[in-house]
Amino acid sequence: MGTDIIKAGVDERGIAEVVVDCPPVNALPVAGWYRLAETVERLGRDPDVRVVLLRAEGRGFNAGVDVKELQADTGHTAVIGVNRGCFAAFAAVYDCAVPVVTAVHGFCLGGGIGLVGNSDVIVAAEDAYFGLPEVDRGALGAATHLSRLVPQHRARAMMYTCATASAAELHAFGSVFDVVPADRLRDRALEVAADIAGKNPAVIRAAKEAFNGIDLWDVKRSYRYEQGFTFEINLSGVAAEVRDTFGGRTDGEG
């Protein structure tokens, strides 16, 4: 994994910008998920940071995990690593002491849903689309986070059929804050982040903690429960069969 797969910086306003850049489709290896988790956690602990903006370079926001890494592993080390790495990254976004704004363009699939579903504010490009293609990859997971983005029955249909939802649809559901042309995405996300950064930081940090405290369900426990089924289908050998017949595509799973 290249040393620059996750880039981060903090500007004078206290906006921490975290950029994922893992060609060709931002499908992260195990180490990448851990690197992302560590970066977001570190920035949240920084008293000078008032908000985190998470975005990506390239063709799309995130295509989940690196399926090739799973295919290359003859045992269960990779799937355990994926489970734990994704859990760490999703939890880091949710538990970050300051709000996390995600800027989504292109595809947001698998693990990308976990990141976006656990974030606080979502700004999307007009070309953004969201989905869980896990069933076609021999995996499960992130239904917890998809259910924070779309209504319950839509989430079930999307999981079972691997259908996607557009940015416009999520905006209509109320889960996406704003939808803008792709060339305006970063600027608009920075505008939203700057609005948050301009508030009293102690109040904003308290608001983030309060919102997490009144959530309707424990997203970490819920996702961990889902992961048990992912591991179960891997142990049975079914997951490998599905991955091997999928055609070796480079997009990911969550």
UniProtKB/TrEMBL annotation:
Entry-linked Pfam families: ECH_1
CDD domains to which the protein is assigned, alphabetical: crotonase-like
GO biological process: fatty acid beta-oxidation
Domain of life the protein comes from: Bacteria
GO MF entry, a single one: lyase activity
Keyword list, A-Z: Lipid metabolism, Lyase
Family statement drawn from the similarity comment of this UniProt entry: Belongs to the enoyl-CoA hydratase/isomerase family.
Classification via PANTHER family: (7AS)-7A-METHYL-1,5-DIOXO-2,3,5,6,7,7A-HEXAHYDRO-1H-INDENE-CARBOXYL-COA HYDROLASE, ENOYL-COA HYDRATASE-RELATED
Protein name per its UniProtKB record: Enoyl-CoA hydratase
Provenance organism: Streptomyces lacrimifluminis
Gene that encodes the chain: paaG
